[in-house]
Amino acid sequence: MKTRIFIGLIIVLVLFSGCTQPSPSTGQPGNNGQPSANTSPPPASTPVCPQGLDAWASKTQFGNPATQFSSSDNIFIIVQSEVGCRDRAKATLFDASGNLVSTQEYNIPKDATGYNDYNPNKNLAAGNYAFEIKYANQTIKTIPIAIAAAEEKQAPLSEQPDTAKFNEYFTRVYLGKLPLGVQVGPPDNFPVKTSVFTSQDQFCTDFTIIKTIPAGSIGSATYSTDKNDYTRPKSNFPIELKQGGSSGCEPLDYAPGKYEYKIYIDDVLVSVLPFEVK
Fold it and tell me: CB 3.0-4.6 Å disulfide test: which of 7, 9, 12, 176 passes with 204?
């Protein structure tokens, strides 16, 4: 009887020693609580807001980054996220003095791009600006930009002058202005070149002549490009113009609008000078 009990105990001990316990550190079968050699590493961390956000300025929706703009350009701020962000991002435009120009907010769901135009009326003044991008009241990016004045597009001339005839008599012709009451002449009272006049200006012309123009050969006319009609028909100068410089001024007698000052030699159009009266 004793022999049978002893053999039974030996069998139970052998069976118990063959069982494997879970590793306390992994919850998986292991060796003395240490991770096994084939345990997988933890997954890489996923970007989170605001680290997962990016923003840039562009001239087009979803366009490439840009920092140089014209006052006639669209100016988009694009905010992009690799992950879904619970809060809204805010993009604020400041001028060089730190004054707030415009601020807008963006919903930024996962894998989506938000955009807004900060110059919809094409009227932002030339100068330096900066966008401040914030998420959850934390500034995540500052984007400096520069805006240049838009180049005014020159309207096509009502007719084309004869450049060969011009070059026969002139090297330079331009419109200028002097204040009311100022007499044209040396040493300092020469017309200031311009194409924009006001009621406080005299209307002046300045020629550099390389070939004497006989009396009655040179003439001028004024054409309104707003009305497509002549406000002053062509008339000729009754005096001879010799080689050298020649300037003359007269009272400004035009209503506000856009015009062309046309110059003729022997009834041939040689110069068309656009100007505006404000």
Answer: 176
Same domain, 260 and 177: yes
SS3 136: coil
Q: Please return the burial class of 278, using the count of CB atoms within 10 Å of its CB with bins 0-12, 13-18 and 19+.
A: exposed
The residue range of the domain holding 239 is 163-277
Q: Which SS3 state, helix, strand or coil, does residue 196 take?
A: strand
Higher pLDDT, residue 56 or 20: 56
3-class DSSP state for residue 49? coil
pLDDT in tens, 224-258: 999 999 999 999 999 999 999 888 899 999 999 99
Sign of CA dihedral 242, 247, 250, 254: positive
* Helix (H) or strand (E) segment spanning residue 58: strand 53-58
In this prediction, residues 157-161 reach a mean pLDDT of 94
CA nearest to 169, candidates 269, 87, 81, 92: 269
The more confident residue out of 181 and 271 is 271
The CATH number given to whatever domain includes residue 107 is 2.60.40.2550
State the pairing for strand pair 138-148/127-135.
antiparallel
State whether 98 and 169 are in the same domain.
no
- Specify if 105 maps to a domain: yes
Q: How many alpha carbons fall within 13 Å on the CB side of residue 130?
A: 12
Give the number of domains in the chain: 2
Estimate to the nearest angstrom the gap between the alpha carbon of 244 and the chain centroid: 44
Q: Which amino acid is at 52?
A: G
